[in-house]
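ARCHIVE CARD
Drawer: 12
Card no.: 0347
Subject: one protein chain, sequence and derived structure
Cross-reference: see card 0346
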Amino acid sequence: MRRRWRALTGLVALGIVGCGYIGDPLPPSLKIPRPVADLAVVQRGEKILIEFHLPELSTDGVVLRRLGEVDLRIGAEGVAPWHRETWEAHASAIPLANGEPGARVRAETPARSWAGREVIVAVRVAGPSGRLSDWSDFRARHVVEPLPAPADLTAEDRPEGVRLIWRWPDTRPARFRVLRRQAEQETVALVGETDRPEWTDAGAAYGARYLYQVQALVRAGDDLAESEPSPGVWMTPEDRFPPPVPSGLTAAAAVDSVELSWERASEEPGLTYRLWRADDGGPAQPIAQGLTTPGYSDRRVSSGKRYTYAVSAVDHLGNESQRSDSIEVVFP
């Protein structure tokens, strides 16, 4: 008996013997998908575009390996008050193939037949056994007559940036998005918005090649309807523009020189100045260039001669401004 007690005591010390309760086994998961959580609907041109992600988990948290049918529908809102059962009975199905859990789904349906009406879009997804999830949120949209794309887009290189002008072939008040893609990039970026059919891209870099497009937006109830983007136009801005003309040129005769000064044309990096002089009414010739400060001492002067001075600004690419107003000095 003592030997048996010692053996039992050793088993307890090792944690092998204990009193515990084994609960009832969990029921098998029904694998009903969770509702779609990110349904998005937008009207673009002739189409109503719909986008969402398929659920990855069941309502009880089980990871889904596959899904059944995707039930995507669109229907008129109807007479208030709105009833889900009435909408279900009359909404049109938008055919979709089965997808993998977590997959991004994009669908479209024609917009013109719904123009002037409120529509409601919703989606639900079946699990592997065919059991359907609850409906997603019901997305309401007011559909308008499809918008035409902006037309006749042109791009012009200007000192202040790339100037874009286009034509809006519709009478409805619109706002416009300006879209830009650099040649080596794949994605289009929104770079500006305007209420007028023109816009200047002051952020375009010289030497870079850009594709520009414009998209129109019109109020549609509480949302915005979009046009398709316009045909694109390519543009490579080039720095062909001279800096501002220097101003405020002054000249004063000193003991053995003419002292000249002027106001800076701009704070542009790399800007220099070229000084011009005409002797006794002759043609003007540059007497100094590459000047980095707005001043110069002209020591090559002779008594009794009349000198006419002007100054121009030159940027780092060699673009030269017009010459400033001239000033005349007779050296004593």
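Annotation on reverse: The two ends are 136 Å apart (CA to CA). The domain at 247-330 is CATH 2.60.40.10 (Immunoglobulin-like).
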